Description:
Elements: E1 13-20, H1 24-36, E2 42-50, H2 56-63, E3 69-73, H3 78-92, E4 97-101, E5 106-107, H4 111-117, E6 123-131, E7 139-141, E8 145-146, E9 153-154, E10 170-171, E11 179-183, H5 184-190, H6 202-212, E12 216-226
Amino acid sequence: RVAERAGQPPRARVLAVTLNWRQAAMTLKCVRALEAMTTAAALDILVIDNGSGDGSAETLRRDLPSGVELLALPENLGFGRGNNVGLRRALDGGYDYALLINNDAFAARDMLDRLLAAADPTVALISPKIYYEARPDTLWFAGGRRRRRTLDIAGTGRGEKDGPDWGADRDVDYLLGTCLLVNLAAIAAVGLFDERYFMYFEDLDWSLRLQQAGYQLRLAADAHLYH
């Protein structure tokens, strides 16, 4: 890392974490997009092979860019437990934030700085605005609200054209785990993903617990991701 210049505020330290399961080529594309970001943060990247058992770990070990860390797990731990491995690495390493990103999601060049610009100590999770990769003017996810009785998600914008109605940052009830900038101070206080969820609903559970602890969840409208 480049030493901070005298008189300049310290750069945020961010660990990006992406899980791979039998999709080495897709994961490499995700990592290349992360590496292409222009950011003022000090960014490190961790790829976790979630027990693929198909040669993915060997492919990634050979083809990942220099400086990107690979951690190969002996079995598939699922989404929550797998990401918790990365979150623990970030907490133990003294990072300020973790950037959890699905391996089939691709960051815009300025995404991380846009997420960081929306950060606040009261905010636990920040999501970019997510578009369909094949239809980059069409929303896939722009935050959500929970229906009170059923807890299912509504108001995500999915399938709608982007426009003024989706142009401002907003605090929301629920964020998907597709891509999250995670305030590690909040996670240290509240806890990691509930590992009883192998896949799905762990992000809803996390959203609920973090809000119950007094934290906000935020959609950063100027931060863009393609999925």
